[in-house]
Design goal:
The structure is a homodimer. Chain A is an all-alpha fold. Helices cover about 75% and strands about 0% of the residues of chain A. Chain A has a two-stranded antiparallel ribbon with strand order 1-2. Chain A starts with a helix and ends with a helix. The interface between A and B is large, with 57 and 57 residues.
């Protein structure tokens, strides 16, 4: 990615992190009641690429939205939902993963009960924050309602949560490509699409533009998952910051297992091309087109 | 309670149950992906007094709101959040309760992973439904935003979830009355207050009326919890439908343990009086006044 685009994306991430830090709902004292908030904060500040937030900001920019402070506050809401899903996904009854981004998972650090509640708290946080942004007139009510409906449906029982359910169900059985695609579309795709649509809604984009944003994110999401699977086989542990081969050890169904490395990368390219073609005709889409290419050719 | 009031409340509950049944988001097929929705539905239809929904409907009626179908759909949202909290509360890492209302708890019936996801799904469901009611013009956007903000804040990390955190923390230590009151206000009071305020918001009530609704529910909530604690000592197992003495066996901090039966009932009366006095001056408040009295003198 060229230096200018990299600088813009880094600045997006910095400003989203700033929005997370200034979020009053996440400030805590060392009292028993606020331990859950401390756990929420721990999980949020443990790092992460902030891809969802960046999609929101960059699609907003693409469709001519004013990049006000509230755009970062709204973008952060996507990261709250993402963090909620990671906390619950890592728990013993789900993936039972004691480590996340090189640090103890939330339930290891704070105990299972506090982790359960921290995930619950983060799942509700966007619906506390967006109404407050509406109350102080940073967003109008129509837009606030659309943002909340889009987010809840994307994360809910017919979106991300259904993807997690399909993931649980797939353990120990052989899945075909269709199943893997559907699972990935739900588990990560829905929230990524919502992230892009968030940007479009904030910009007051047309329905056609919203759909373009959604198609872009859908392609990026599938390509991202496929590359993840490939890197778990041929990646560099030092660059990735985690051991490779974990999918195979867990006997997980992955795109790489079903299609082989070459077949998987071919499919990743197809989805990346779809993502690019969804937005390429819009002026100023070069950064997002490069982002899609870079996410495919990344090595970490 | 006189027959007419009883009939009105029974009809409220019937119509709320109908709203839950017609909720498209809760209909499911027997596929792996929809097992989570089946679990949500199981938990919702396992019974319950629907006090939260009834508070919403009756406060709406008190403040002159039109009792349209959408009022029951909105009231049902309070029950979704309540069911979410019960599913997660019953899980092994929390209260570890295998039975709820005489039936296997959700995690016993469906497994811990599905129960975790079912709770997550229900926590998001109101924020899917209310925007749809807004989209089909049953509620205006301003009101939809206020409802969602009120609900998320009441349930979130500084509301119901903080109450659950305080409850976890209190295990094995002696709590004083202030701690018990704060815990109860958060764990059950916040959602009850939101339920009453929901009714006021739907009715387009004034701020003063909203506050009266909130004070009423706060008093009812504390009295209700105190009576719960007392019934666990002196209640009739057959009427209650569950074994008594469970609080003592679990060494739980309760109002009855701290104040004794008589002291606890005196405090329940004080809170009931506060509830009644908050709304007694409004025309048509007799049903709600009687409801508060009845919840205090119940034997089940």
């Amino acid at each position: 990615m060229n230096e200018e685009y990299k600088r813009i994306l880094d600045e997006d991430v910095r400003l989203v992190n700033e929005a997370i830090s200034r979020c009053g709902e996440l400030s805590y004292s060392d009292t028993p009641g606020e331990l859950v908030i401390k756990a929420e904060s721990y999980s949020l500040l443990a790092g992460g690429k902030r891809i969802r937030a960046a999609l929101c900001v960059e699609l907003n920019r693409l469709f001519g939205g004013r990049i006000a402070d509230c755009c970062y506050d709204v973008a952060a809401c996507l990261e709250y939902i993402h963090a909620f899903s990671l906390i619950h996904d890592d728990m013993p009854e789900m993936d039972n993963d004691p480590v996340r981004r090189g640090k103890p998972s939330t339930h290891v650090k704070f105990g299972q009960n506090t982790a359960l509640l921290a995930g619950d708290g983060l799942s509700l946080l966007p619906f506390e924050i967006i109404p407050k942004l509406c109350e102080n007139r940073s967003i109008d009510p129509e837009r606030a309602v659309r943002l909340m409906g889009t987010l809840a449906s994307a994360a809910g029982s017919r979106g991300m949560i259904m993807g997690q359910a399909l993931d649980i169900h797939s353990e120990g059985i052989d899945c075909d490509l269709d199943y893997l695609i559907k699972m990935s579309e739900l588990k990560t795709g829905c929230l990524l699409k919502a992230s892009a649509v968030f940007g479009a809604i904030l910009a007051g984009a047309s329905k056609k533009e919203e759909e373009a944003a959604s198609r872009y994110a859908a392609g990026v999401g599938l390509a991202f998952q496929i590359v993840d699977d490939v890197l778990d086989i041929i990646g560099d542990e030092k660059l990735l910051g985690k051991p490779i081969g974990s999918d195979k050890r867990r006997n997980k169904n992955t795109f790489a297992a079903v299609l082989g490395i070459d077949g998987a990368m071919k499919l990743a390219k197809k989805y990346t091309d779809q993502a690019v073609s969804a937005i390429a005709s819009y002026e100023g889409s070069e950064l997002l087109c490069q982002l899609a290419q870079d996410l495919m050719s990344r090595n970490k």
